[in-house]
Amino acid sequence: MIILSYLSVAEIKLGMTLNQVLASPDGKIVFGQGSIVNEQLLACLKKWKVAGVDVAEAETAEFSFAEIEKMIADIIGSLSENQSTDRPQAGVSCIQE
């Protein structure tokens, strides 16, 4: 899921995605929507005294090691139960020679 946020310059981190067009004080478009925040972009925001910008962030999920192990076990178990020798699995083509 993508989260859209208005963040102050102090909250913006490298790697975030700009969700707006950013123009210089003289009106020239310098950074387009979809630009990845890098050190140059941050320096421009500070130099131009921009209060904040709209960014798009991918929501990250955090799992414990135990939760990941359980998910893997569940997937493997599900795959084992669904395997059959008399019909192909979905997405697998059968080529007869």
Q: What does this protein look like?
A:
This protein is an alpha+beta fold and 97 residues long. The protein has one domain: Molybdopterin biosynthesis moea protein, domain 2 (Alpha-Beta Complex). 28% of the residues lie in helices and 22% in strands. It contains two helices and five strands; from the N terminus they run ββββαβα. The protein has a three-stranded antiparallel beta sheet, with no helix packed on it. A hairpin with a 5-residue loop joins strand 3 and strand 4. The radius of gyration is 23 Å and the shape is elongated. The C terminus is likely disordered.
Output the keywords.
22% strand, Molybdopterin biosynthesis moea protein, domain 2, alpha+beta, 3-stranded antiparallel β-sheet, 97 residues, single chain, two-stranded antiparallel ribbon
Rg estimate, integer Å: 23 Å
Could you say what the CATH architecture is?
Alpha-Beta Complex
Low-confidence stretches: 91-97
**What's the CATH H-level homologous superfamily?**
Molybdopterin biosynthesis moea protein, domain 2
How many beta-strand segments?
Answer: 5
CATH secondary-structure class: Alpha Beta
Report the total helices: 2
Strand percentage lies at 15-25%
Distance between the termini: 45 Å
Task: Please outline the major beta sheet.
Answer: 3 strands, antiparallel
Widest beta sheet: strand line-up: 1-5-2
What's the overall average pLDDT, rounded? 79
**Could you state the order of secondary-structure elements as H and E?**
EEEEHEH
Shape assignment:
elongated
In short:
With 97 residues, this protein is of the alpha+beta class. It has two helices and five strands. It has a three-stranded antiparallel sheet, with no helix packed on it.
